[in-house]
Amino acid sequence: MKHNLDGKVAVVTGAGRGIGAAIARKLAGLGASVVVCGRTREHIESTTKTISHGGFKSEAVECDVMDLHSVESLARHVDSNFGRLDVLINNAGIGSFSSPLHTLPPEAWDKVLNTNLRGVYYCIRSGGGHIVNISSLAGKNPLPNGAAYAASKWGLNGLSYSIAEELRGHNIRVSVVCPGSTNTDLSPHEGKNTAKMLQPDDVAHVVEMLVTQASQSFASEVLLRPTSKP
User: Fold this and answer.
1) Which one of the listed residues 121, 122, 149, 161 is annotated catalytic?
2) Are the C-beta atoms of residues 222 and 177 closer than 8 Å to each other?
3) Are the CB atoms for 181 and 192 separated by under 8 Å?
4) Does the annotation mark 149 as catalytic?
5) CA trace torsion 24, 25, 26, 32 (10° rounding)
6) Among candidate residues 79, 30, 80, 39, the one with its CA nearest the CA of residue 58
7) 76-130 per-position pLDDT tens digit
């Protein structure tokens, strides 16, 4: 049976759990060879085991997107083992939702910005293919007690729009996906009905639509919300 991404190679960062794991499973199901990346070996191997049980192809590669040398090592691995990169999903991210900005320690600010924004820059300069950046509606709206996270996502949106213009002449498409509250370990769930929240597979479905779109066009941005407010 032929799949839409047969023969393609995809890299998914932050793919050990949540949205990243769902995206990795989705792309593998579409026929891509998926490089499952993350900082925790146990988590990324769990994702690859799930993919292999479905009869699809993936491999786990440890990578810390905050570390340029780690990202460059990942790029060398992909080049030497596959010789190509067709889809890059920048999903790795962390949040900080418990304190107003004036009480946030500088090291916490650095960790959020370096993971959510600098890490995407590192991966883009080391990779190629159709780039999909997983952002957030927090990059569109105020987020009290989550200003660092919001700042990183506003920055990621601006980065995505700008490089889309830089790279479209090189036949590289860039898309950004902005989900609302999603039922993962990252999102704050207090007072919310998790059954009504977006689920990781909802985001993965949007990524599927983006990367299987006909090559003469691309959706530059998708805003994703739950049907019922949680």
Assistant:
1) 149
2) yes
3) yes
4) yes
5) 70
6) 30
7) 999 999 999 999 999 999 988 888 999 999 999 999 999 999 999 999 998 789 9
Sheet order of strands, 58-62 included? 58-62, 33-38, 9-12, 87-90, 130-134, 174-179, 221-224
* Length, in residues, of the chain: 230
Q: Which residues contact 72 (CB under 8 A, 6 or more apart)?
A: 126
Query: Confidence band (pLDDT; 50, 70, 90) for 1?
Result: low
* Section 23-43 average pLDDT: 97
Closest CA to 212 of 29, 30, 28: 30
What one-character DSSP code corresponds to residue 198?
Answer: B
Q: Which two tokens stand for residue 63?
A: 């990578």
- What gap in Å lies between CA 88 and CA 85, rounded to an integer? 7
CA-to-CA distance for 102 and 108, rounded, in angstroms? 12
Q: Could you tell me how far CA 230 lies from the centroid of its own chain?
A: 23
Comparing CA positions, the residue from 3, 4, 26, 29 lying closest to residue 15 is 26
Contacts of 225 (CB under 8 A, 6+ apart): 137, 180, 198
Using the 8-state DSSP alphabet, how is residue 182 labeled? B
Query: Residue 76 and residue 172: Cα distance in Å, rounded?
Result: 20
Tokens describing residue 128 = 């190629």
